[in-house]
């Protein structure tokens, strides 16, 4: 083990401090078991639907919405509380909201196709009510999970769509009734059941699931060890390790914060120890980890949305993203070398030598036990085969 590693408990504390929101609940007892079962069922369903299933698009997207948005009301309180007891308490209204999301999200996809087709442009009062509930609850779920910014932007454009005649100049338009708005957002594939949710349900969720599982079983540590073997023996090695390990981890992680916490627990103390200023050590790690959002193949989920909207093959999107990602890391690498030349720094040679030995012993047999990841990879490739 490296002398720079911190304990898993400290890593968990850092993740909670910087990634977990102050209104996020820690469920207990029955609800904890229920959400665990729901999350396992959600993972198995997406695993099956993306690799083997032939499920209608609208039904697949409706099931995805019912899982995700329904669980938000159980995992996130409506506001932040100073004490854990109040924050972790799940109110009856949140349970009702969660049930309503499941009902409204699945109501439309479960209609017979001929009836659903007749509702487009001519929604009944039931569809208007169901759609209204789902729109409001989706906005509230977004507010709880990611903050006020996105819901406010959505509300501004909703007002623009509904009250077009009151806007001046080129912004003025005929407007829409609430029933017409719900028809467009709820019944057609241009709204809640649109391309963005389809991409998340079909592709992105699998990559996120794969990245989380890979990180939990130690693939993130493999990348750190590999980076140490490659760059740790050279002058200013810790900075180079930070860059390489963040680039490697960025290929499977959709979270800059998770990337920073995983690799930074090793690289930031190591950089400080050999002489880098603390602010520079943190900046190198944070900048390198942020690059994971533009590193193929996930691109922070943007790649798959670009495929759907631009109607380009996935390989073209990834090829276009590769050069900017390499330039990003090359720029950080050059800055690290420049800083090293200004202040003559040591290396991680001793630690790297130990890691080379451990690397050979630790991973010699591990690669023979990757049947699960071969299967997952095959399913992901199957789901992307039409690209």
Task: Give a description of the structure.
This protein is mainly α and 387 residues long. The protein is 71% helix and 0% strand. α10 (195-216) runs antiparallel to α15 (302-310) and α12 (237-250) packs parallel to α14. The longest helix is centred in the last third of the chain and has 29 residues, at 314-342. Residues 358-369 have low confidence and may be disordered.
List the helices and strands and how they pair.
Blueprint: H1 8-18, H2 29-51, H3 57-75, H4 84-88, H5 92-107, H6 113-119, H7 125-146, H8 149-162, H9 178-187, H10 195-216, H11 219-231, H12 237-250, H13 256-274, H14 278-290, H15 302-310, H16 314-342, H17 349-364, H18 371-383
Helix pairs in contact: 1-13, 2-3, 2-10, 3-5, 3-7, 3-10, 5-7, 7-8, 7-9, 10-15, 10-18, 11-12, 11-17, 12-13, 12-14, 12-16, 13-14
Short synopsis of the structure:
The protein has 18 helices and no strands.
H/E series, N to C?
HHHHHHHHHHHHHHHHHH
Average residue pLDDT: 78
* Helix/strand class: mainly alpha
Low-confidence segments, ≥5 residues, pLDDT <50?
358-369
Query: In percent, how helical is the residue content?
Result: over 70%
Features:
single chain; 387 residues; mainly alpha; 18 helices
């Amino acid at each position: 083990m490296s002398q720079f590693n911190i304990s898993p408990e400290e890593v968990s504390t850092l993740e909670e401090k910087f990634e977990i929101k102050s209104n996020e609940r820690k469920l207990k007892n029955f609800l904890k078991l229920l959400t665990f079962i729901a999350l396992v069922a959600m993972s198995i369903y997406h695993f099956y639907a993306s690799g083997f299933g032939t499920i209608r698009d609208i039904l697949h997207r409706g099931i995805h919405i019912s899982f995700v948005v329904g669980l938000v009301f159980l995992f996130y309180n409506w506001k932040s509380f100073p004490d854990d007891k109040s924050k972790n308490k799940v109110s009856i209204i949140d349970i009702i909201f969660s049930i309503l999301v499941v009902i409204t999200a699945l109501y439309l996809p479960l209609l017979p196709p001929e009836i659903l087709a007749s509702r487009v442009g001519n929604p009944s009062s039931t569809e208007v009510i169901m759609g209204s509930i789902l729109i409001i609850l989706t906005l509230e779920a977004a507010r709880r999970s990611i903050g006020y910014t996105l819901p406010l932007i959505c509300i501004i454009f909703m007002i623009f769509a509904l009250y077009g005649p009151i806007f001046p100049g080129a912004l003025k338009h005929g407007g829409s009734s609430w029933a017409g708005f719900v028809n467009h957002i709820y019944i057609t594939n241009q709204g809640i059941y649109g391309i963005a949710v389809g991409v998340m349900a079909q592709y992105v969720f699998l990559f996120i699931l794969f990245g989380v599982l890979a990180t939990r079983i130690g693939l993130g540590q493999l990348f750190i060890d590999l980076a140490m073997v490659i760059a740790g023996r050279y002058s200013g090695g810790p900075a180079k390790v930070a860059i390489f390990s963040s680039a490697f981890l960025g290929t499977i992680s959709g979270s800059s914060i998770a990337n920073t916490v995983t690799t930074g627990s090793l690289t930031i103390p190591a950089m400080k120890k050999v002489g880098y200023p603390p602010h520079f050590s943190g900046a190198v790690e944070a900048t390198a980890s942020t690059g994971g959002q533009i590193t193929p193949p996930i691109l922070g989920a943007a790649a798959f949305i670009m495929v759907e909207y631009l109607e380009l093959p996935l390989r073209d999107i990834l090829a276009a993203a590769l050069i900017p990602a390499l330039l990003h890391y090359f720029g950080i690498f050059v800055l690290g070398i420049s800083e090293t030349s200004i202040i003559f720094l040591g290396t991680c040679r001793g630690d790297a030598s130990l890691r080379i030995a451990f690397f050979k012993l630790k991973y010699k047999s591990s690669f023979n036990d990757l049947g699960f990841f071969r299967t997952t990879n095959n399913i992901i490739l199957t789901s992307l085969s039409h690209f």
